[in-house]
Design brief:
It comes from Allopusillimonas soli. This is Pyridoxal phosphate-dependent aminotransferase. Pfam families: Aminotran_1_2. By secondary structure, the chain is an alpha/beta fold. It has two domains: 142 residues, Aspartate Aminotransferase, domain 1 (Alpha-Beta Complex), CATH 3.90.1150.10; 232 residues, Type I PLP-dependent aspartate aminotransferase-like (Major domain) (Aspartate Aminotransferase, domain 2), CATH 3.40.640.10. 41% of the residues lie in helices and 14% in strands. Helix 5 crosses helix 6, helix 7 runs parallel beside helix 8 and helix 11 runs parallel beside helix 13. The longest helix has 27 residues.
Amino acid sequence: MSRLATRTEQVLPFYAVELFKQASLLNAQGRDVISLGIGEPDFTAPAQVVETLQRAAQAGLSGYSSPAGLPTLRDAIARYYGEHFGAQVDPARVIVTSGASGALLLAAMTLINPGDEVLLPDPSYPANQNFITAAGGIPRLVPSSAAQRFQLNAEHIRTHWGPDTRGVLIASPSNPTGTTITRADLAELIAEVRQRNGFIIMDEIYLGLYYGDAPQSALVLDDDLIVINSFSKYFHMTGWRLGWMITPETMVPAVEKLAASLAICAPTLAQHAAITCFEPEVMQVFETRRLSFKQRRDYLLPELEKLKLHVPVEPDGAFYIYADISHHSKDSTVFSHRLLHEAGVAAVPGQDFGSAHAAHTLRFSYATGLDRLQEAVQRMARFLERQ
């Protein structure tokens, strides 16, 4: 066999997936493992959405859509941004994709040339680096502290922007930290990037799962961003593989051209079903579930502190808690392994999200029921008592 492409060696492993495999193997062997590792909601699509899918399938609506997606769905997404996130969006700027991953791939392929450098915070979602690498770019992680909410800020741009830097990829709320970028900090960061004629890819996948006052899209501050979002997290449709991107008007033809070749279109039946997500009674289901996630966060935060698993920045979105385990261990990989095999609790070691805080952090996902979170806390307490 001929040699593999160099990029296969550059692509980073995803330790959360490896942890999920280990937990699944233990479950198959009869062990009861509580997963606080994988970022997948325990809720699934509401019944109304499933019924719409069934009707669409029975009606034979499974053929290709246009590369940009069904017009009705694009209209619904644009209205959603206006009604819920304060951003007026022309539906022509909405591109429906095969999950947020499809959107990130299209954004990277549209904006990044070989050798271009893109800045990301350390810590950040590991797959984001791989999309940059796939386009021939160079991801550069910038260490971000708890005082900076583990986010990029304007000072990072001023300090780390180099001759090959072309843009930034940021997320608010973030995976793994659940933290948002404050409005003032985001405005200042955008201004610094704009001064350098750079691009901004904004991951708003968890924007619907925000626990403060009414959330606002970054598009409110700057209409010339590339925004990524998904039906996986807030809408609880992970396996449906449906997402979207909102691009500047000038980018739409290029993105559509790439989408036509790389994906043809997003899954059409899923698109038909997703239109139902925006009906008022279905949106109320999602709001009730959002409050359930908030309840879980509010339970788990003080319990982790009692266990001396310190949370340096309170998460205000998503369903993750980024905890400092320094009191118990200086090696998060070993600690995660022991927690899984000795306590039956899966949590992702910090190495998945960058090197800056890798040794002393774990990411806990509370995308599981409150009763299971309570059991997980009891198991961890017993485990730590034996140390």
